[in-house]
Specification:
Elements lengths: L33 E5 L2 H4 L12 H5 L22 H10 L4 E5 L2 H4 L11 H16 L3 E7 L5 H7 L5 H19 L5 E6 L1 H9 L19 H23 L1 H4 L2 E7 L2 E4 L5 H24 L5 H7 L8 H10 L6 E4 L3 E6 L13 E4 L21 H15 L3 E5 L12 H4 L3 H19 L5 E7 L18 E3 L6 E3 L1 H17 L10
Parallel strand pairs: 1-2, 1-11, 2-3, 3-4, 4-5, 5-7, 6-8, 7-10, 10-11
Antiparallel strand pairs: 8-9, 12-13
Helix pairs in contact: 7-9, 8-9, 9-11, 9-13, 11-13, 14-16, 16-17
Bound molecules: ligand GBH.
GO molecular function: cellobiose glucosidase activity
Pfam family, one: Glyco_hydro_1
Protein name: beta-glucosidase
Length: about 500
């Protein structure tokens, strides 16, 4: 076991060097474990100019010249906006019990702000989706913000760079969603992946609004300002939900954090072991500590970032500590893991990592896992189990896996016939579900659901349509949907795993 910089006991098992990958065992899962699939509005809906929708920062970003999204955009995407009935039928055939989607803010409030008009046609679209889901007994899980800020708010006051304005507008939008959909939506997620929003939106500039030092922005401070706005807007929305809606609507609310697990590059190096812990605190603790513990940013961030990191006022801290316990689950997006190596020398002036180098192999050159169809994603199911433990120990909340999945190697160059035989993805799902089973039954971690990313191939942000995460193949010329075998694997393995659960050792949940 290791101590992090501020002395928190954080690591459970000794890091394993790339062990040979085990076969999928279809290990048991609890009877009430929830199988779902996930999507995001801009990635699937299309209908970008339909029925009074206002533009979002993604409508602008995906039309920039030269293109920053692989010469593609989400104007049509999967045309889900016009194909809801068909898509809900697909979900039904996959035996899904939950569907996680995101709401496009600028469909409901085209200009986005608290004094701007509401677009009833946008509300009607989500009402129809929700009602169709419930008619098939599929639980709607709604994310309020999956990256598509109303463009007007970016222009009006800089969006997330203006904390009080953004917070007020976000809470107004959240209230609208709770009041219109909360009679039927019982699991709410405020923000998807604040780390990615902050770092990719305001540091590397790979995602909208595309700020970076090379574009003339201040990437030393902007990511942390954006993150600060997200945390405080989340907390204010949670407070609004708890005080105005939760009593009669009886739903739950939380945030979704993503993050890799980091193994030390050199297990024998104390500096690398500390670097691995620090990297996770800079990634996950940045948001997890204020949101779930109701405390300040991790001590290692305060120490290393100095004035780059905004301060919470006394009122902010009391809002955070008041709302922390209301976040009744931990929403985890997780795909892969890496090795962390302590950098020597001073960090870059806009460092986001705690001065840590990230690598796919360790000191012996052993790769952390097999490469999928995208360069940043390797199959690392062993580390997934470790991350589940890390989160459970630190935040003590039941976990929902709100996204997990991968593209198969070479998938985008395949014919439909080849693509539906997605053995690589099936194996990935199988191993990651086995890891969940071990975390539950061997480690005592509470994991309550698994939402595969993604229901269908879709607009993969800066990568355009070339990277396919779907359990459904989408032909982007004809928009024809074809189920991949992994969709039925998920349905069937879930049944099998749950029937084994009766014989599984009882859950040993630590106090
Ligand atoms: C999730 O982000 C998103 O929530 C979802 O919308 C997305 O479709 C899904 O993952 C699959 O990517 O191009 O090498 O710079 C996961 C975090 C952040 C991981 C951006 C990939 C790009 C790496 N992602 N990152 S790179």
């Amino acid at each position: 076991m290791f101590l992090s910089e501020e002395g928190l006991l954080t690591e459970y098992a000794a890091p394993a060097k790339a062990a040979p990958r085990a076969p999928v065992l279809d290990l048991p899962l609890p009877k009430d474990f929830v199988l779902g699939a996930a999507t995001a509005a801009y990635q699937i809906e299309g209908g970008a100019f339909q029925d009074g929708k206002g533009p979002s920062i993604w409508d602008e970003f995906s039309h920039l010249e030269p293109s920053r999204t692989s010469n593609e955009n989400g104007d049509v995407a999967c045309d889900h906006y016009n194909r809801v009935a068909e898509d809900v039928e697909l979900m039904k055939s996959y035996g899904l019990q939950a569907y996680r989607f995101s709401i496009c803010w600028s469909r409901l409030i085209p200009l986005g702000g608290r004094n701007d008009p509401i677009n009833e046609k946008g509300i009607a679209f989500y009402n129809n989706l929700i009602d169709r889901l419930l008619a098939q007994n599929i639980q709607p899980v709604a994310t309020l913000y999956h990256w598509d800020l109303p463009l007007e708010l970016q222009k009006r006051y800089g969006g997330m760079l203006n904390t009080p304005q953004f917070q007020a507008d976000f809470v107004n939008y959240a209230r609208l969603c709770f009041s219109r959909f909360g009679d039927r939506v019982k699991q709410w997620i405020t923000f998807n992946e604040p780390y990615i929003i902050s770092t990719y939106g305001f540091h590397s500039g790979i995602l909208a609004p595309g700020h970076s030092t090379s574009m003339g922005n201040d990437s030393r401070t902007e990511p942390f300002r954006a993150g600060h706005s997200i945390i405080l807007s989340h907390a204010a929305a949670v407070k609004a939900y708890a005080s105005e809606f939760q009593l009669h609507q009886t739903g739950s609310i939380s945030i979704v954090l993503n993050g890799d697990y980091y193994e030390p590059y050199d297990i024998l190096s104390e500096a690398d072991r500390a670097a691995a812990q620090r990297r996770m605190e800079f990634y996950i603790g940045w948001f997890g500590d204020p949101v779930y513990l109701g405390t300040d940013y991790p001590a290692c961030m305060r120490k290393r970032l100095g004035s780059r990191l905004p301060e919470f006022t006394a009122a902010d801290l009391s809002l955070l500590s008041e709302t922390a316990p209301i976040n009744s689950f931990y929403g985890m997006n997780h795909y892969t893991s890496q090795y962390a190596r302590a950098r020597t020398g001073d960090p870059e002036e806009d460092d986001m990592t705690g001065n840590v180098e990230e690598l796919p192999y360790d000191i012996d050159g052993v790769e952390i896992g097999p490469l999928s169809g995208v360069s940043w994603l390797r199959v690392t199911d062993v580390q997934f189990r470790k991350l589940l433990n890390w989160i459970w120990v630190r935040y003590q909340r039941p976990i929902y896996i709100t996204e997990n999945g991968c593209p198969c190697p070479g998938e985008n160059d395949m014919t439909v016939k080849e693509a539906v035989n997605d053995d690589f993805r099936i194996r990935y799902f199988g191993l990651y579900l086995d890891a969940i089973s071990r975390a539950i039954y061997e480690d005592g971690v509470k994991v309550q659901g698994y939402y595969a990313w993604s229901l269908m191939d879709n607009f993969e942000w800066s990568a355009g349509y070339g990277i396919r995460f779907g359990i459904t193949h989408v032909d982007f010329k004809t928009l024809i949907r074809t189920p991949k075998r992994s969709a039925f694997y998920l349905r069937d393995t879930m049944k099998q795993r749950k029937s084994k659960a009766a014989h599984a050792p009882s859950m040993n949940v630590p106090a």
